Amino acid sequence: MTWCYTDRWSARPGEAVVLHASSAHGPCQLEVARIGGERRVALSERIDLGEHPRPERADRDGCGWPAAYEIRIGRDWPSGYYLTTLTDSEGGLAHHFLVVKPAQPSAKAALVVATNTLAAYNWWGGASAYAHVESLMAREANLAGAMANALGVLSTQRPIAPLIVAAPADMPRLVNLRKRGFEERPWAGAETRDWARAHRQSPYDGAAGFLNKWEHHFVRWAEGVGLSLDYLSDYDLDAEPGALDPYDAVILVGHSEYWSGRERDAIDAFVERGGRLAIFSGNTCFWKVRWKNEGRTLVCHKWKGLEAEDVAARDATHLWSHPAFGRPEAAITGLSFLYGGYHRLGNCAARGIGGYTVYRDRHWALDGCDLYYGDVIGDGVPLIGYENDGCPIRFGADGLPAADARLGVPEDLEIIALAPASFGEPADSPYRPLIPPEQLDVAAEVAWGSPSPAMQQRVLRGHAVMASFRRGKGEVFNAGTTEWAYGLAAADPFVTRITLNVLKRFGAL
Questions:
Q1: Surface-to-core class of residue 424, CB atoms within 10 Å of its CB (0-12 exposed, 13-18 middle, 19+ buried)
Q2: Of the residues 88, 166, 273, 393, which has the fewest C-beta atoms closer than 10 A?
Q3: How far apart are CA 4 and CA 41, in angstroms?
Q4: pTM exceeds cut of 0.85
Q5: DSSP H helix total and E strand total for the chain
Q6: pLDDT tens digits for 105-132?
């Protein structure tokens, strides 16, 4: 087998990135290519490689392989997402990636690639923040046992699981493309297991990564309409104070689930001083994480965060909405996954319409969309699926939904459209659950102030919400779903027009 990783995940033109690799079939052909609307090769080189063992705790401590090659970022390389590919002498492939930051900021908008989410989901070497996936795949552990052996400390100094870093174009989405039939057994994503078996897909592979997933689809569309973007990784916001200063707009796409404290500080400050935050993502800013060792170690204890370490509360890792932090994510995103959930996945809204129902049809984001109260958009995509963010809802005297301002949800949040979603599958269903169980008692206490069975049921009744609000001198638009980019990929006219309206208002176009 051939594998590789780099000493860091982002760099600027003129800087060097060290490639570490192992192959039993060297020498290998190295190729580095920018992935956007088109694939453009930036570097091609033949390199000699040796084979190195995988350490027992590579998932936690990294591989420690020697340097194999120094990738010098060309001064003419445009900012973007670059795929690194090694092809060995027997045709075997290994992939990694690199975010190339701009030498000098040139675009009006920055796309922040969800590399924290990738780090949390990566299970190469055994475990991720979710489970010991390798033992689950080998059937050496059931789901509960595998989840019990999830890691709270994860190394970036290891390869990335192949279907996370280099998903093929035909990889099934994490969405049920049609409604569940009468008495039909629920499923998740692909209707058959053939693709998963053929590609050795884990239950976690579709939830992170750029290639042929959310951010890639957005970038294809963006470059097609002439939207110029500078690229940053999540960690760049953590490591570089002022990284967002040059920009009018910040764009998040797909699954920006994990934010560090410094990243949160940077985005909060950006919006407060007048920046515009366009969120085309779902489950955004849900988990609080921490970086160590100059971006080589991610600390992410999730539900165990407040007990796993003896650290000050500000450094602990848990839900951003946990009262220990006093900084619920909805204060900057407007919405929370605690009030949203899954749609068209497993038995969560399994017969949901897959689209948004429009309520506030006179909202600026819908200008020129030919949309009216009660219209449904995106149901053919489907636009609502996998993970979605929401807020507590009440209806005003005008018959329109309004936000119940709690847990950071802004009082002036304007709800544009809604769809039902659920934080988990019903416990009394006769069907085997397909979505890994969350800690409903903790979620209920954080979201509704009580871990009681009644409030646990309340958590299961959420909504996907499209909304906007103002904060400080800035403004936020939140599409509320992971699947927004698939609406752009499908050339849905409503999704396209709304996206253009947001980007134009926010100064990105």
A1: buried
A2: 273
A3: 18
A4: yes
A5: 15, 25
A6: 999 999 999 999 999 999 999 999 999 9
